[in-house]
Amino acid sequence: MHELRQSAPSAEGVDAAAVGHFLDALATAGIEAHSLMLLRHGAVVADAHWAPYEAGQLNLLYSLSKSFVSVAAGIAVQENRFRLTDRIVDLVPDLVPPDVADNWRLVTVRDCLRMATGHLDDPAFHLAADDWLAAFLRMPPEQAPGSVFTYNQLATYTVARLIQETAGERLLDYLRPRLFEPLGVDTAAWLTDGHGHDLGFSGLHLPTDAIARLGQLLLQRGEWHGRQLVPAGWIEEATSPQMPNDGAHRRPGVEEPTFDWGHGYGYQFWLCRNGFRGDGAFGQFCGAAGV
Protein backbone atom coordinates (compact mmCIF):
# COMPACT_ATOMS: atom_id res chain seq x y z
CA MET A 1 0.00 0.00 0.00
CA HIS A 2 1.30 3.45 -0.90
CA GLU A 3 1.43 5.63 2.21
CA LEU A 4 0.63 9.30 1.85
CA ARG A 5 3.80 11.36 1.83
CA GLN A 6 4.38 13.44 4.97
CA SER A 7 5.93 16.90 4.76
CA ALA A 8 6.39 20.06 6.79
CA PRO A 9 3.90 22.83 5.93
CA SER A 10 6.69 25.27 5.04
CA ALA A 11 8.20 22.80 2.58
CA GLU A 12 4.93 22.81 0.62
CA GLY A 13 4.27 26.55 0.79
CA VAL A 14 1.75 26.36 3.62
CA ASP A 15 1.81 28.82 6.52
CA ALA A 16 1.99 26.63 9.63
CA ALA A 17 0.90 29.55 11.82
CA ALA A 18 -2.26 29.91 9.73
CA VAL A 19 -3.08 26.24 10.30
CA GLY A 20 -2.60 26.79 14.02
CA HIS A 21 -4.86 29.84 13.95
CA PHE A 22 -7.51 27.78 12.18
CA LEU A 23 -7.38 25.09 14.85
CA ASP A 24 -7.57 27.74 17.55
CA ALA A 25 -10.60 29.27 15.84
CA LEU A 26 -12.36 25.89 15.86
CA ALA A 27 -11.80 25.61 19.60
CA THR A 28 -12.87 29.19 20.26
CA ALA A 29 -16.08 28.69 18.28
CA GLY A 30 -16.88 25.53 20.22
CA ILE A 31 -16.81 23.38 17.09
CA GLU A 32 -16.36 19.73 18.04
CA ALA A 33 -13.82 18.58 15.49
CA HIS A 34 -13.19 14.86 15.10
CA SER A 35 -10.35 14.78 12.58
CA LEU A 36 -8.59 16.91 9.99
CA MET A 37 -6.13 16.15 7.22
CA LEU A 38 -4.60 18.86 5.04
CA LEU A 39 -2.66 17.97 1.90
CA ARG A 40 -0.59 20.19 -0.37
CA HIS A 41 1.30 19.01 -3.45
CA GLY A 42 0.21 15.48 -2.58
CA ALA A 43 1.78 15.54 0.88
CA VAL A 44 0.14 15.55 4.30
CA VAL A 45 1.09 18.81 6.04
CA ALA A 46 -1.39 18.58 8.92
CA ASP A 47 -3.04 15.55 10.51
CA ALA A 48 -5.09 15.88 13.68
CA HIS A 49 -7.52 13.66 15.56
CA TRP A 50 -9.42 14.71 18.66
CA ALA A 51 -10.08 12.12 21.39
CA PRO A 52 -11.90 9.81 21.50
CA TYR A 53 -11.69 9.74 17.67
CA GLU A 54 -8.64 7.95 16.33
CA ALA A 55 -6.81 7.60 13.03
CA GLY A 56 -8.18 4.66 11.06
CA GLN A 57 -11.57 4.84 12.73
CA LEU A 58 -14.56 4.44 10.41
CA ASN A 59 -16.72 7.56 10.17
CA LEU A 60 -20.22 7.93 8.76
CA LEU A 61 -19.85 10.32 5.82
CA TYR A 62 -23.53 11.23 5.43
CA SER A 63 -23.92 13.04 2.08
CA LEU A 64 -20.22 13.02 1.36
CA SER A 65 -21.11 9.47 0.28
CA LYS A 66 -22.64 11.06 -2.83
CA SER A 67 -19.24 12.07 -4.18
CA PHE A 68 -18.11 8.44 -4.09
CA VAL A 69 -21.22 7.55 -6.10
CA SER A 70 -20.12 10.12 -8.67
CA VAL A 71 -16.72 8.47 -8.97
CA ALA A 72 -18.37 5.06 -9.26
CA ALA A 73 -20.64 6.39 -12.00
CA GLY A 74 -17.65 7.65 -13.96
CA ILE A 75 -16.08 4.22 -13.82
CA ALA A 76 -19.38 2.58 -14.82
CA VAL A 77 -19.78 4.90 -17.81
CA GLN A 78 -16.26 4.05 -18.93
CA GLU A 79 -17.17 0.36 -18.67
CA ASN A 80 -20.21 1.02 -20.91
CA ARG A 81 -22.69 -0.06 -18.25
CA PHE A 82 -24.84 2.96 -19.10
CA ARG A 83 -24.50 6.42 -20.62
CA LEU A 84 -25.17 9.86 -19.20
CA THR A 85 -27.86 10.37 -21.81
CA ASP A 86 -29.70 7.14 -21.02
CA ARG A 87 -33.22 7.62 -19.70
CA ILE A 88 -33.88 6.05 -16.31
CA VAL A 89 -37.15 4.46 -17.48
CA ASP A 90 -35.25 2.62 -20.22
CA LEU A 91 -32.66 1.25 -17.80
CA VAL A 92 -35.12 -0.19 -15.28
CA PRO A 93 -38.24 -0.97 -17.35
CA ASP A 94 -39.53 -3.59 -14.89
CA LEU A 95 -39.88 -0.94 -12.18
CA VAL A 96 -41.68 1.69 -14.27
CA PRO A 97 -45.38 2.03 -13.43
CA PRO A 98 -47.86 1.98 -16.36
CA ASP A 99 -48.93 5.55 -15.57
CA VAL A 100 -45.44 6.98 -15.12
CA ALA A 101 -45.44 10.77 -15.52
CA ASP A 102 -44.38 12.22 -18.86
CA ASN A 103 -41.60 14.21 -17.19
CA TRP A 104 -40.20 11.01 -15.68
CA ARG A 105 -39.86 9.57 -19.17
CA LEU A 106 -37.34 12.34 -19.92
CA VAL A 107 -35.13 12.03 -16.82
CA THR A 108 -31.60 10.87 -17.66
CA VAL A 109 -28.66 9.59 -15.67
CA ARG A 110 -27.09 13.02 -16.02
CA ASP A 111 -30.19 14.68 -14.56
CA CYS A 112 -29.93 12.48 -11.48
CA LEU A 113 -26.22 13.20 -11.05
CA ARG A 114 -26.72 16.97 -11.26
CA MET A 115 -29.82 17.05 -9.01
CA ALA A 116 -32.11 18.20 -11.80
CA THR A 117 -34.84 15.57 -12.06
CA GLY A 118 -37.57 18.23 -12.12
CA HIS A 119 -38.87 17.52 -8.62
CA LEU A 120 -39.46 20.71 -6.63
CA ASP A 121 -38.77 19.10 -3.25
CA ASP A 122 -36.50 16.39 -1.96
CA PRO A 123 -38.98 13.55 -2.50
CA ALA A 124 -40.42 11.99 0.63
CA PHE A 125 -40.49 8.24 0.62
CA HIS A 126 -41.43 5.46 3.00
CA LEU A 127 -38.41 3.50 4.14
CA ALA A 128 -40.51 0.35 4.37
CA ALA A 129 -41.27 0.42 0.63
CA ASP A 130 -40.41 -2.85 -1.06
CA ASP A 131 -38.38 -1.03 -3.69
CA TRP A 132 -37.26 2.56 -3.23
CA LEU A 133 -36.55 3.12 -6.90
CA ALA A 134 -40.00 1.88 -7.89
CA ALA A 135 -41.47 4.24 -5.28
CA PHE A 136 -39.41 7.13 -6.69
CA LEU A 137 -40.70 6.43 -10.19
CA ARG A 138 -44.23 6.91 -8.86
CA MET A 139 -43.40 10.47 -7.74
CA PRO A 140 -44.07 12.79 -10.72
CA PRO A 141 -41.51 15.56 -11.35
CA GLU A 142 -43.44 18.85 -11.28
CA GLN A 143 -41.18 20.43 -13.88
CA ALA A 144 -39.17 19.27 -16.86
CA PRO A 145 -35.83 17.69 -16.00
CA GLY A 146 -32.95 20.12 -16.18
CA SER A 147 -35.10 23.14 -15.35
CA VAL A 148 -34.80 23.27 -11.55
CA PHE A 149 -32.14 22.35 -8.98
CA THR A 150 -33.42 20.35 -6.02
CA TYR A 151 -31.14 18.49 -3.64
CA ASN A 152 -32.53 15.01 -4.05
CA GLN A 153 -31.51 11.94 -2.05
CA LEU A 154 -33.33 9.49 -4.30
CA ALA A 155 -31.65 10.89 -7.41
CA THR A 156 -28.33 9.71 -5.99
CA TYR A 157 -29.89 6.44 -4.85
CA THR A 158 -31.06 5.91 -8.44
CA VAL A 159 -27.52 6.20 -9.82
CA ALA A 160 -26.23 3.86 -7.13
CA ARG A 161 -28.93 1.34 -8.02
CA LEU A 162 -28.05 1.54 -11.72
CA ILE A 163 -24.45 0.65 -10.94
CA GLN A 164 -25.52 -2.24 -8.73
CA GLU A 165 -28.07 -3.52 -11.27
CA THR A 166 -25.64 -3.43 -14.19
CA ALA A 167 -22.66 -4.79 -12.24
CA GLY A 168 -24.60 -7.53 -10.44
CA GLU A 169 -23.06 -6.70 -7.07
CA ARG A 170 -23.29 -4.20 -4.26
CA LEU A 171 -21.88 -0.76 -4.94
CA LEU A 172 -19.40 -1.26 -2.10
CA ASP A 173 -18.12 -4.46 -3.68
CA TYR A 174 -17.99 -2.79 -7.10
CA LEU A 175 -15.73 -0.06 -5.72
CA ARG A 176 -13.35 -2.26 -3.75
CA PRO A 177 -11.12 -3.45 -6.64
CA ARG A 178 -11.69 -0.35 -8.78
CA LEU A 179 -11.16 2.42 -6.21
CA PHE A 180 -10.66 1.49 -2.57
CA GLU A 181 -7.96 -1.16 -2.93
CA PRO A 182 -5.84 0.81 -5.43
CA LEU A 183 -6.10 3.86 -3.14
CA GLY A 184 -4.91 1.80 -0.18
CA VAL A 185 -8.24 1.91 1.63
CA ASP A 186 -8.53 -1.36 3.55
CA THR A 187 -11.77 -0.86 5.48
CA ALA A 188 -15.11 0.47 4.28
CA ALA A 189 -18.78 -0.16 4.98
CA TRP A 190 -22.03 1.07 3.45
CA LEU A 191 -25.53 1.01 4.93
CA THR A 192 -28.25 -0.56 2.81
CA ASP A 193 -31.95 0.10 2.27
CA GLY A 194 -32.84 -3.19 3.91
CA HIS A 195 -33.21 -4.88 0.53
CA GLY A 196 -29.53 -5.36 -0.32
CA HIS A 197 -28.96 -2.02 -2.06
CA ASP A 198 -26.36 0.42 -0.75
CA LEU A 199 -27.96 3.79 0.03
CA GLY A 200 -25.64 5.80 -2.18
CA PHE A 201 -26.83 9.18 -0.91
CA SER A 202 -25.52 8.41 2.59
CA GLY A 203 -24.34 5.52 4.70
CA LEU A 204 -20.72 5.15 3.56
CA HIS A 205 -18.25 4.64 6.42
CA LEU A 206 -14.56 5.38 5.82
CA PRO A 207 -11.54 6.60 7.80
CA THR A 208 -10.45 10.22 7.36
CA ASP A 209 -7.36 9.05 5.47
CA ALA A 210 -9.60 7.62 2.75
CA ILE A 211 -11.34 10.96 2.29
CA ALA A 212 -7.95 12.64 1.92
CA ARG A 213 -6.97 10.09 -0.69
CA LEU A 214 -10.15 10.76 -2.65
CA GLY A 215 -9.41 14.50 -2.63
CA GLN A 216 -5.88 13.92 -3.90
CA LEU A 217 -7.19 11.54 -6.57
CA LEU A 218 -9.55 14.25 -7.77
CA LEU A 219 -6.74 16.80 -7.94
CA GLN A 220 -4.70 14.29 -9.94
CA ARG A 221 -7.61 13.89 -12.38
CA GLY A 222 -8.19 10.26 -11.47
CA GLU A 223 -4.57 9.07 -11.67
CA TRP A 224 -2.98 7.23 -8.75
CA HIS A 225 0.64 6.04 -8.82
CA GLY A 226 0.66 5.59 -12.57
CA ARG A 227 -2.79 3.99 -12.81
CA GLN A 228 -5.84 5.81 -14.17
CA LEU A 229 -8.56 4.76 -11.71
CA VAL A 230 -11.19 7.22 -12.95
CA PRO A 231 -11.29 8.84 -16.41
CA ALA A 232 -9.69 12.27 -16.32
CA GLY A 233 -12.49 13.66 -18.45
CA TRP A 234 -15.05 12.44 -15.93
CA ILE A 235 -13.27 14.20 -13.06
CA GLU A 236 -13.22 17.42 -15.07
CA GLU A 237 -16.91 17.11 -15.88
CA ALA A 238 -18.05 16.01 -12.42
CA THR A 239 -16.28 18.90 -10.69
CA SER A 240 -17.42 21.55 -13.19
CA PRO A 241 -20.78 23.40 -13.14
CA GLN A 242 -23.43 21.09 -14.61
CA MET A 243 -26.50 22.73 -13.08
CA PRO A 244 -27.05 26.30 -11.88
CA ASN A 245 -28.22 26.29 -8.28
CA ASP A 246 -28.79 29.97 -7.58
CA GLY A 247 -32.17 31.22 -6.43
CA ALA A 248 -33.44 31.60 -10.00
CA HIS A 249 -32.98 27.86 -10.58
CA ARG A 250 -34.57 26.59 -7.37
CA ARG A 251 -38.15 26.15 -6.26
CA PRO A 252 -40.06 29.47 -6.43
CA GLY A 253 -39.90 31.26 -3.11
CA VAL A 254 -36.58 29.75 -2.00
CA GLU A 255 -34.15 32.37 -0.73
CA GLU A 256 -30.96 33.08 -2.64
CA PRO A 257 -28.29 30.66 -1.36
CA THR A 258 -25.46 32.14 0.68
CA PHE A 259 -21.69 31.64 0.82
CA ASP A 260 -20.64 28.58 -1.21
CA TRP A 261 -24.10 27.13 -1.82
CA GLY A 262 -24.96 28.90 -5.07
CA HIS A 263 -21.91 28.60 -7.31
CA GLY A 264 -23.28 25.67 -9.27
CA TYR A 265 -23.44 21.91 -8.88
CA GLY A 266 -21.46 19.24 -10.71
CA TYR A 267 -22.08 15.52 -10.54
CA GLN A 268 -22.56 15.08 -6.77
CA PHE A 269 -20.05 17.85 -6.05
CA TRP A 270 -20.68 21.44 -4.91
CA LEU A 271 -18.81 24.17 -6.76
CA CYS A 272 -17.19 26.82 -4.55
CA ARG A 273 -15.53 30.18 -5.01
CA ASN A 274 -12.20 28.36 -4.90
CA GLY A 275 -12.47 24.80 -6.14
CA PHE A 276 -15.13 22.24 -5.29
CA ARG A 277 -16.18 20.00 -2.42
CA GLY A 278 -18.00 16.89 -1.36
CA ASP A 279 -20.20 17.79 1.59
CA GLY A 280 -21.89 15.74 4.29
CA ALA A 281 -24.02 16.62 7.29
CA PHE A 282 -22.29 17.75 10.48
CA GLY A 283 -19.18 18.88 8.63
CA GLN A 284 -18.01 15.85 6.64
CA PHE A 285 -15.97 17.61 3.95
CA CYS A 286 -13.67 16.69 1.11
CA GLY A 287 -12.59 20.00 -0.38
CA ALA A 288 -10.16 20.43 -3.25
CA ALA A 289 -8.62 23.43 -4.99
CA GLY A 290 -6.01 23.29 -7.70
CA VAL A 291 -3.76 25.93 -6.19
Automatic annotation (TrEMBL):
Keywords, A to Z, come to: Hydrolase
Domain (Beta-lactamase-related): give its ranges: 28-193
Q: Which InterPro entries match?
A: Beta-lactam-related, Beta-lactam/transpept-like, Diverse_Enzym_Activities
GO MF, one term, reads: hydrolase activity
The protein depicted here goes by the name: Class C beta-lactamase-related serine hydrolase
